[in-house]
């Protein structure tokens, strides 16, 4: 499913490259509302709320009157989540608040889920250069996006398409998830190899 996003900053729709460089700014917010009105879901991100530079809640309220929205940015407390839902959001997106002291804050995530309902909560894990970033992409945490979600397993990005590696990769991931002895050593394929200074090199057969 394609879910378009409307990012709001200072009352306008913007596009920021990696949360920093301004690429697009359009003060005609409702041109974007009309553009996306046929989509069953639209994501709305309040960048001012995310960076503690104010908020666009009144604009979110108006947009949510026309579109089915999931809204993120500045969802730091249960009260704020409830306020955004009351403004018309179908769901809220929590990101930075789900981390504390550089680790996932499972207690807050559970409390937020119980307060508003798990079906109305979306957990966002933003990453850059293999690390989780919070506070509007301003703070980098010492963990990867995969490490940030306990119990979450992902197997993707295989570069050997067409070489019949699917069954073996599936078996490896199944072994890792269930705790069984793995059919091969998975450590050369760890995500952190891109950030831990190990400088992975292609296999000689791949050259």
Describe the structure.
A seven-stranded mixed β-sheet has the order 3-2-1-4-5-6-9. A three-stranded antiparallel β-sheet has the order 10-11-12, with no helix packed on it. The chain has a two-stranded antiparallel sheet with strand order 7-8. The chain folds into two domains: 5-151, TIM Barrel, CATH 3.20.20; 153-207, no CATH class. The two termini are 37 Å apart. 25% of the residues lie in helices and 22% in strands. The model has no long low-confidence stretch (mean pLDDT 86). A hairpin with a 2-residue loop joins strand 10 (127-128) and strand 11 (131-134). It is α/β, with parallel strands linked by helices and 207 residues long. The protein contains six helices and twelve strands.
Mean pLDDT figure: 86
CATH topology of the largest domain, what is it called? TIM Barrel
| CATH architectural group of the largest domain | Alpha-Beta Barrel
Strands, total number = 12
Instruction: Sketch the topology as an H/E string, one letter per element.
Output: EEEHEHHEHEEEHEEEEH
Helix content: 25-40%
The number of helical segments is 6
Low-confidence stretches: none
Gyration radius over CA: 20 Å
Q: Look at the helices and sheets and give the structural class.
A: alpha/beta
Percent strand equals: 15-25%
Strand order of the largest sheet: 3-2-1-4-5-6-9
CATH superfamily of the largest domain: Aldolase class I
Shape: elongated
- Most strands sheet: 7 strands, mixed
């Amino acid at each position: 499913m394609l879910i378009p996003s409307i990012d709001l900053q200072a009352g306008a729709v913007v596009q920021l490259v990696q949360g920093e460089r301004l690429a697009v700014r359009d003060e005609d917010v409702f041109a974007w509302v009309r553009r996306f009105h046929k989509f069953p879901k639209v994501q709305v991100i309040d960048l001012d709320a995310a960076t503690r530079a104010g908020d666009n809640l009144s604009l979110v309220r108006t947009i949510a009157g026309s579109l089915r929205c999931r809204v993120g940015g500045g969802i730091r407390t249960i009260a704020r989540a409830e306020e955004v839902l009351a403004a018309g959001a179908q769901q809220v997106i929590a990101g930075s608040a789900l981390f504390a002291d550089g680790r996932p804050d499972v207690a807050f995530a559970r409390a937020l889920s119980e307060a508003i309902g798990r079906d109305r909560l979306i957990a966002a894990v933003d990453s850059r250069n293999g690390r989780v970033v919070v506070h509007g992409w301003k703070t980098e945490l010492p963990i990867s996006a995969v490490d940030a979600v306990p119990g979450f397993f992902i197997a993707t990005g295989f570069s050997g398409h067409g070489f019949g590696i699917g069954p073996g990769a599936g078996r490896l991931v199944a072994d890792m998830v269930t705790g069984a002895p793995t059919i091969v050593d998975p450590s050369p394929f760890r995500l952190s190899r891109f950030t831990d200074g190990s400088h992975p090199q292609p296999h000689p057969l791949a050259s």
